[in-house]
Amino acid sequence: MDYRDTPEEAKFRLELREWFKHNIPANWRDITDGEGLRALAKSWHKALYADGYMGLNWPKEYGGQGLSPSFDAILNDEAGRAEAPRLPGMVNYLGRAIFTYGTEEQKLLFLPTLLSGEVQWCQGFSEPGAGSDLASLRTRADLQGDHYVVNGQKMWTSGALQADWCLLLARTDSGAAKHKGISCLLTPLDAPGITVNPIVLHSGEPETAEVFFDDVHIPVTQRIGEPGAGWRIAMTTVSYERGASDTGSISVLRRQLRELEQIAHQKGLLNDLNTRMKLARAHVDIEALSLNVAQQLSSRLAGRDPGPEGSVGKLLWSKAAQYTMHVALDVLGADALTGNAPRWLAEYFTSRPVSVYGGSSQIQKNILARMLDMPR
Ligand SMILES: Cc1cc2nc3c(=O)[nH]c(=O)nc-3n(C[C@H](O)[C@H](O)[C@H](O)COP(=O)(O)OP(=O)(O)OC[C@H]3O[C@@H](n4cnc5c(N)ncnc54)[C@H](O)[C@@H]3O)c2cc1C
């Protein structure tokens, strides 16, 4: 492993730093209402795309830049450092499914607008009763002539309220073994028979949703991969979702920790050994995550796709994000609850589902146990 930037990477980093200086929307943190946040996400996505910062690692023929995965990691790192709005991360892992398994026609039709932000997507995998045990999903897609008829329900579909399309998993063969009877359909959310109901999170915003399908007709040409390939497609998608470039929020964690150290200093808490130990442990957790990300990145640069070992990164990310926020509440004390520091309380709540979405911590441990050949 060599953690240093190559000359091209160093040049890109400097360019990016300059770009962030001039392009981060002013006062974006003051936007708190749902409509404003959605407009911000869309315009931020478009600004990044316009200047060539989306799809850095995608092939050029589908609108990408054809660069190595380290450029994505630099983008994540610098975005966190510059306190930029969140990057549109879903694009990378949903796009990966389409350009790994889609036909040439599907790739040319769907990838450019996914990348540019013109068309918004969401991931319709989880269902009530099929989150960790995703292979038990019950939404059905029955083949009738040249289209599938979809019936069922998805749950926790983030961004579904504003999305135009959904990468949908549905059971197309109920006679097959449960992992083998699933297919993946590119589904327009304005198709007749689809109802999207918001789920409001702690922020007060409907960040995620439940989606109902009632006799929804989807042309067979919108299936990606072979019938029954849905499980493999889902695993590719989540391995990129759990992967190194999505845990690039390290610079955000580092910044939060620096701020907490300053607050602890101002409150005279740094004389307390217990507080110093907690801050040190958060620091160690963040550095362990950072080294794991560097290791995963080296492995991708050596040409290996992310695999089950990405579960280590997901576990370290959950641990670092949640522990840092735990320390934040300890350092802020009552201020976190009295409204003197509402931002920290919101960030604390934002850290809670990190250990659930993209596969819970317990499931990551199960995956690793299987890799290590441990007893069931
Ligand atoms: C904010 C948020 C956004 C999300 N966004 C999306 C999205 O966009 N698209 C999407 O498809 N899904 C999304 N999800 C769903 C997410 O992937 C699931 O919540 C997650 O996989 C867990 O599934 P579950 O909620 O059904 O919990 P369950 O699977 O019911 O798990 C409940 C608890 O039991 C534990 N558990 C379950 N099985 C085992 C086992 N075998 N061994 C040990 N422990 C076990 C789990 O770790 C967990 O603690 C989102 C979730 C959240 C919270």
UniProtKB/TrEMBL annotation:
Q: Which family does it belong to?
A: Belongs to the acyl-CoA dehydrogenase family.
Against SUPFAM superfamilies, the record matches this protein to: Acyl-CoA dehydrogenase C-terminal domain-like, Acyl-CoA dehydrogenase NM domain-like
Q: Where is the Acyl-CoA dehydrogenase/oxidase N-terminal domain?
A: 6-118
GO cellular component, as recorded: plasma membrane
Cofactor(s) listed: FAD
The Acyl-CoA dehydrogenase/oxidase C-terminal domain covers which part of the protein?
Answer: 228-371
Q: Which domain of life is it from?
A: Bacteria
One Pfam family in the UniProt entry: Acyl-CoA_dh_N
Organism encoding this protein = Pseudomonas laurylsulfativorans
Protein name (record): Acyl-CoA dehydrogenase
Domain Acyl-CoA oxidase/dehydrogenase middle residue range list: 122-216
**Record bears the keyword Oxidoreductase:** yes
Q: Which InterPro entries match?
A: Acyl-CoA_Oxase/DH_mid-dom, Acyl-CoA_Oxase/DH_mid-dom_sf, AcylCo_DH-like_C, AcylCo_DH/oxidase_C, AcylCoA_DH/ox_N, AcylCoA_DH/ox_N_sf, AcylCoA_DH/oxidase_NM_dom_sf, Mycobact_Acyl-CoA_DH
Alphabetical keyword list: FAD, Flavoprotein, Oxidoreductase
Q: Name one GO molecular function term.
A: oxidoreductase activity, acting on the CH-CH group of donors
**Could you confirm whether the keyword Mitochondrion appears in this record?**
no
